[in-house]
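Appendix B, Record 12. Input sequence as logged:
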Amino acid sequence: IDYWREAWLARELLPLLVDDLRASAPLFGLGHTRFATHGDSSNADNLHPHPYSRDDGAGAITHNGVLWDHERTAVDHGVDLVGECDSELFARLIEADADDDLLARVRHSIEACDPCDDIALAVGEVTDDGRHRIVLAARGNPLHYTIHRSTLWWASTPAALPGHDSRRLPERAM
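Logged structural output:
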């Protein structure tokens, strides 16, 4: 998995990203256009996507929302955060979970959070045996998606999506 975590404006990053995509032809990409809500946004450890690795593959997450007690939750679940960004908690929980099923690991990571935390989460994973998986989840925060030119797009607001045929992921759906 290749990833960029840069504190650039999207309009500055887009030309570089397009060139990179043309060269590598990835099967999926995850992105986030806001700086970190927790921690210094000039520190790459606080920026999205938050990568993780496991014995059977690797992945990354992006999250829109605020996890109010992310540091306590990390301690309670025995995971160490690298940066200060609350969203990193999902990467660490998914990474540490022994379940082989990505959907179950994402569900467990959401259940570990306070019920009042608003979550719009995207997780992409590539396994060593070549499987590529994406899980989208919403709890409290909206997550909209569409298929445009044979590509799945998702965002917290439909205005950020291409085309005019987006749908909202149902509350507490994955």
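Helices lie at 10-24, 70-76, 88-96, 102-112.
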